Structure formats: structure tokens, C-alpha cells
Amino acid sequence: MNRGFAARIRRQWPVLAAAVGAGLTFVISGIIRGTYPFGDGPRSTNDLGQQFVPMYAHYRDMLTGQGVGDLLFNWSSGFGVPFLGDFMAYVGSTLSWIVLLFPRDHIDLALFLVDVFAIGLAAGAMTAYLRRLRPGPAWIAVVAGISYGACGWAIDDAAYMSVWLNGLVAFPVICLLCEWILSRRSTLSLLVSPFVIALLWTSHFYTVYMATLGAAIVVVARILAYDASVSWRTRLTGALRCIVAVGLGIGLAAPLLLPTYRIVQAARPSPDAAFRPISAMDFLARLLPGSEGVGATPGLAVGTVLLLLAVSFPFNRAVPGRERIVWTAAVALTVLSMQVDFTHDVWHGFDTPNGSNYRQAFIVAGLLVIVGWLSAASGLRTVLAVAAPVGVVLVLYLVMWNVRTTTTTTRIVVPLLIVIAVGAWLAGRRPDRLGRVAVALLVGAVVAEVSVSSAAIDAQRSKILSAKPPWGDLHTAIRGLVESSDDWPTHRAAPGADQTVNDPMLIGGQGPQYYSSTIPDRVSQQLLDLGFGYSSYGRATIDPQNPVVDAAFAIRNRVVVGDDDVPKLETYDAAPLVTVRRAKPFTSGDPGPFGAQETALGADVYTIPKVLGEKDPDATVSDRRGGLTITPARGATLPVETTLHATCTPGSEIWFAAPTYVGEVLVDGRDWVTNLAPTAKSPGIYSGAPMLRVGTAGADGKVEVTLRLAARTKLPSSPIGCLHPDRLTAAVANLNASKAAAVSVGGHSIRVRLQPGEAAAVVIGVVRIDGWSCSVDGKAGRTPGTRGGLLAVAAPAGASEVSCAYRPVGARMGLAVGALALLGLLAVAGLLLLLRRRPRA
């Protein structure tokens, strides 16, 4: 038995070789580029640095008990937000456990290895599928696996969106499972497959959904390509068994999928985007290795050798005619589907993404590898089967010479690999040592091509997208300050946003910053109403560092990094996380964020003065239609300066709130400060400015706010607020005096013990969202109310305890569907066993 096991292991060496080879190419590309961990160049491009690294850090804290929150809720970010959606959208990889192998300050290395192993898994899975699909030369299967695992999409689009690589893994795995079901009508295949499908769907539902569609295309092609000896009954029952296995697998994943779906439904929406197909030239150019067009064009490249083999497929008479027709049509229609509105919507779940419109490109890459393998496994025995693809690829190469996505690497490697591939084909016709050397040379050339292509893609992409540095001394210093000021759950300690917009997850603490595509719309809108700035359509929040917001949400300590890059800890007067307020709510009548802050705090701390424009020959200020409009004079030298005038109580702080104002503001002690940069896209939609402290009212109470702008702009009708420090101090003192007797916070719950007294409202410094349920003295849970957006629970006279818990909407339904899927799987197992035991006539 040991010999048999060893033999099976030896037969699987191509799978291991492909996995190692693909992962190695990714490592080599990093060495070539000198990026982390092989040099000083930052690797954490865009969302990798801003979202994935911080969320993996938070996930590690959750697993090790070092953080606050659990799988359902994250107390660290955005004043408290759901975490299940982030787990499923960013972290839920089958490889995320790797973070436990490294200390927290090496989280960047853990993410690098997640990418390496995911690319390797995808390559190994594809090689295993190809060898099950059709026998053929093992070395070609290895080359094919490497070409798929490190395809253009994997490197250009998914390597910095690590969780997307789960779709790359899922496509060949689902194909492999369905091939198992089709070729062996065993009970085991039908029972094991749903659990694997469930694991895949919980690793990243978005790209795995695309992988499932791609696998469906492959299964249909397989069924249609069978020869006449296979009956249609056999074909259709095989397809049905595959559908049942996949359906049950998705059902088993429902306890996580359905709540995530409801979280995504409630998330901050992005503006509607219309899909616009790109030109055929730009589209086809991405078939060439080394081409780069992240977010704008599809990463279709699978290397020169596999491209040649894929193109050879229709010309290869060694492949049966029916098979050539079916698979060629499948690839062509799939490519066409990427450019057609309706099928584009189907690929993306009927939600056109803003950016990266070709996220399903890895399916086309996989199909090219599959047909390339089918051609190679059948044998390239004719000159036509070799000459035709060489001619087609050379024409493509020459036509795409100056296309914007083509790189210098592309121009070098394509002709070089064509020469090596043709030479290997000629030498391979002789089964002697020369043929083996040619094969080894070709495999080495493919590995080299993939490596340098990956490096070229990363180099081009880095010119477009910024990257965050890995964990360093500044991270350590900030984390140390946050830990030294830990007062949770009485107060929050905010780490700031000096490193990323998700520093509360990356560094620690409980700050207001948060950037996620699953941020609840109610949280985003509430923070914007309170004067927060934002980017990415409101999915990323910018802390105004406003003392009223700090007081209302219990921020007592904040780390601030100055121009000298030295972090300092600032301490403020703040109310506790849980306050006990009067039963009758206070509602401010002040406009804009000033009134929203007062309502959240429960006290009147601002005065809103009338704002007048300065008589200026270079600009006019008019008060019309609910706002102040500033118009530069015709012929004035841009930018122009103009001053807004108001009167405030002497000594009050002056705050300026104009989220859509593109221009600069003169701030006491800081000179000119950019409110919103001219490069900001569609102010009010893509990005907005946080409210800004501009100075202090002098002894005469006169206030001047000087602006510098280059174009006509509109401000709110009341852009200036006068904050009275004495009123704020009194309000905070009042809230501190009425704090709860004791507060304990669980992973997704909070329990408050009250001092006996009259009827009151227990207000918790968390933005209320759907999913919270609160009870008083153990009675039935109810949906809590709100005070200025904060979670509030009415407590009758004499109440002693209030407890609240968060459960994602859809959790019950998800558990029910999961249970039904499990029962269905057991029923299928029972039926199959019964049919097997039934005596045959």
C-alpha cells in the first residue's frame, strides 16, 4: 500500500511543479523589481495597502484575542461597524490563516505569502484539471499551469487585491470537481464536492461567482464535445449531478453568504456606472505577455507558448472536429460576452463596477489554457498546426507594437519565445537527448518570460497607483502610544490616519477612520452629516478632528503625527462611550454639521453667524438659492482671493464647513490649507472635505475666513460655526456626571449596568445600524432608537441593566438555508445508497 501511495504521489509531481513554478515566478518578479520583502520598494499598491493589510491585521488581532470585536462586529473602525462583510469581501481566503505564522509587525510579509501560495494553488489546480481532462506530456501541463496561475489578470489585477486570487483558484477546482462527477458517477464525488464548493464560495463570493459561471461554460463545452458513443441521457444526468453538487455547496455557504448579501445591500452605494466596451485593438493587445492596463483593459495574457497552443487549436486536425468547433465557439463567445452589455452585467452580478470592468478576464485566460492543452495533448503533427498560430501571433504582435498597454518586455519576449517554441517543436520530434534539452530550455524560457512579464506589469502599474510602505518604526511608535493610552471601553483611543485610512485596524485603537466597500450607508451618511470628509464615494471617511465629535463619540486620546514625523499623543475632554441622558431628547436647530454635532452631543455649543462676502473687484459673493456662490471676475488673474466676514463671541473657535469647495483656506498658524484639490473628481460624489478649524475669534469678535479659488464655486449658506469652549466643557462634564455604573463590551454586544434613578435614555457612542437589538432588565429585545444617529435605548425609572447585541440581518435565513442544504445533501446520499443497494433485474 505504501508503494501504491508513493506511486500516486510521483504521478502528481506535475501539479506540485506547476504550483512551485508559478509561485516562484511571482517571487522572482519581486526580486527583479526590488520590492518588499526583497528591497526597499513598497509592494502594497492601492487597496492592498489601504484595505487588505489593515484588515488582515485586524483579523489577526481577532484570532489572537488582541483586538476588540469578533467575526460579526468591529469596534475599532468607524465608531463601530459590521465585520462579516469585510471578512467575506477582503479577508475570507482559505489562506488567511497564514497571518498567524508571523508576528503582527510582519503582516505585510503574510500578505505577500498569501499571494504566492494562491498563485501556486491556482497553477497546481489547473494542472491537475488538465491532466484529468486528457492525458498528455507532463511538462506541457506544468507550463500550462504556470501560465494560468501567473496570467496577466492574476498579476495586474488580483495580486494587489489578494482575495480576488480565490476566484483564480476556484475556476480550475470547480472544473476538476465537475469532471470528477462527469467521469465517475460515484457517491463520493457527489458528497465531497458540495463541501469544497462551500469552502470556495466563502473564500470570496464575488470572483468565485465568476469562476462558477466559467466552470459552467467548461461543463457545457465538455458535454457538447463528447463523441457519439456517449448518450445524451448520460450527458444530461452528469450535468444535473454537477448542478446539484454546486447548488448544495452554495446552500451550505448560505449562513455567511446571505448576511453578507444583506450587508452589501445596505452598504454605501457608488454612482451608477455605464459599461463602455473598449476598442478591439486595446482588447486584443492584452493577449500579449507583459502588457499592462490595470482597471481599464482585461488581463488575458497567458504567455507566448500557451497563446500559440491556444491559437493552434482550431487548426490542429489531431483534435476531433466536433471538439474543435465546440471549444472554439466557447472561447469566442466568452470573449464576446466581455464586450456585450447584458452579458457584462451577468458576469458582474448585474452591478457594473466603477473601475476594472473586466474582472472576469481570468476565465478567458483559463479557457485559453484549456484549449491550448487540448491541442498540445493531441499532438501538433502538421506544419499548419504550427505555422498558423505563429503567423497569427506575429501579426498580432506587429499590429499591437505601439498600443498603450504594450511594454518593452512585450516587444522582446514574444519573438524570442516564438523562436524557442518552434525550435523546441522541431527538436521534440526527435526522442533523443536533443529533444529533452529543447523541452528543458522551453520550460525555463516560459518561467523566465512569466517572471519578467510580472515585473514589467508591476513597474508600469506603480507609475499609476501609489503604494504604502510596510510596517516600520513609525507604525511601532504610533501603536505604542495607542496601547499606552488604552481606556476601552470607557473611552476611545484614535491612532489617526497617518499610515492608511484604516489605521484603527492596522495600528489598533478605536478611531473613526474606515474605508471599505461594505461600509453601511447609514454610517457613511451619518459621519458626513457630522462634518467628516470622504473619498471613494463616501466609502472612506476623513476625521475632522473636531472636539464636539470627539466628545460625543468618547475619543479621549488621539495620536497626531506632525511635520517632523514624530507621533504625539493628544488628550481631550470627552464623554464616556455610554452616557445616561434625559428621557426627552435634545434636537438642535442649527444647520449643517454644526446642528448634527449638537444633537449627537445633546447640548447647544455652537453659534451660527450670518456670513457676508467682501466687496472685491476680483470676485463676487452672492447669497442665492440656499448657498453662497463665489464667482471670479471676468479677466481676473487666477487664483483669486476673497474673504468671508462674520461675528462670533470673542474666544470662540471658528470652524469652516464646505465639503464641495475646491480651493484653499487661510488657517491660523498653518498658512494656506487645501480644502479640496482641483484634481478631485466630481466634488460631492467622489470626495468631500472635512470641516476645518480656521482660527479663534479675537477680542472684537470679528471673524475673517480668506479663501483662494480658481473657478466659480458654491458654499453652504452657513459655512461658518462658532464653537464655545466653555459650553462644550460644561456639556462634557454633565455627560461624565451621568455615566453608567459599569460597562462591559463583548465581541458584538455591550452590557450596561445602571444606577437606580428616573426614566432616562442610555446612549452608546455607536452609529445605529440595522441588526442591533436591545433589551432592558432581560426583557424581550427590541430595535433601539437613535439620538443624533447614536444608538439609544429608553430605560424606564428603576431600570438596572441594558444589554444590546448585533446580529447581521439575514443571519437566521442563512442558517435556515444552510440547514436545508445539509438535509438535501443527506437526502441525496441516502437516495444514492438506496439505488446502489437495489437489486438489478
Describe this structure in words.
With 841 residues, the protein is α+β, with helices and mostly antiparallel strands. Among the domains are: 473-581, no CATH class; 606-723; 729-806. The protein has a five-stranded antiparallel β-sheet with strand order 12-15-20-17-18, with no helix packed on it.
Termini separation: 36 Å
Q: Detail the poorly predicted runs.
A: none
Q: How are the strands ordered across the major sheet?
A: 12-15-20-17-18
- DSSP strand content: 15-25%
How many beta-strand runs? 29
Count of separate DSSP helical elements: 27
Mean pLDDT: 93
**Shape, per Cα inertia axes:** globular
Helicity level: 40-55%
Main sheet specs:
5 strands, antiparallel
Alpha carbon gyration radius = 31 Å
Query: Helices and strands: which structural class?
Result: alpha+beta
In short:
Among the domains are: 109 residues, no CATH class; 118 residues; 78 residues. Helices cover 47% and strands 16% of the residues.
Descriptive terms for the model:
841 residues, alpha+beta, five-stranded antiparallel sheet, 27 helices, 16% strand, Uncharacterised_YfhO
List the helices and strands and how they pair.
Elements: H1 2-11, H2 13-33, E1 44-45, H3 47-64, E2 73-74, E3 81-82, H4 84-91, H5 107-133, H6 138-149, H7 152-158, H8 165-183, H9 187-203, H10 205-225, H11 232-252, H12 254-265, H13 280-285, H14 304-312, H15 321-337, H16 341-347, H17 361-378, H18 383-399, H19 408-428, H20 433-462, E4 467-468, H21 473-484, E5 492-494, H22 503-506, H23 521-529, E6 533-535, E7 540-542, H24 547-552, E8 555-561, E9 567-571, E10 578-582, H25 592-601, E11 606-607, E12 612-613, E13 619-624, E14 627-632, E15 640-647, E16 653-656, E17 663-667, E18 671-676, E19 692-696, E20 702-709, E21 713-716, E22 720-723, H26 725-737, E23 742-745, E24 749-753, E25 760-767, E26 772-776, E27 785-787, E28 790-795, E29 801-806, H27 811-837
Parallel strand pairs: 5-8
Antiparallel strand pairs: 1-4, 2-3, 6-7, 8-9, 10-25, 11-22, 12-15, 13-14, 14-21, 15-20, 16-19, 16-22, 17-18, 17-20, 23-24, 24-29, 25-28, 26-29, 27-28
Helix pairs in contact: 2-5, 2-6, 2-20, 3-4, 5-6, 5-8, 6-17, 6-20, 8-9, 8-10, 8-11, 9-10, 9-11, 9-27, 10-11, 10-15, 10-17, 11-27, 12-27, 14-17, 14-18, 15-17, 18-19, 19-20
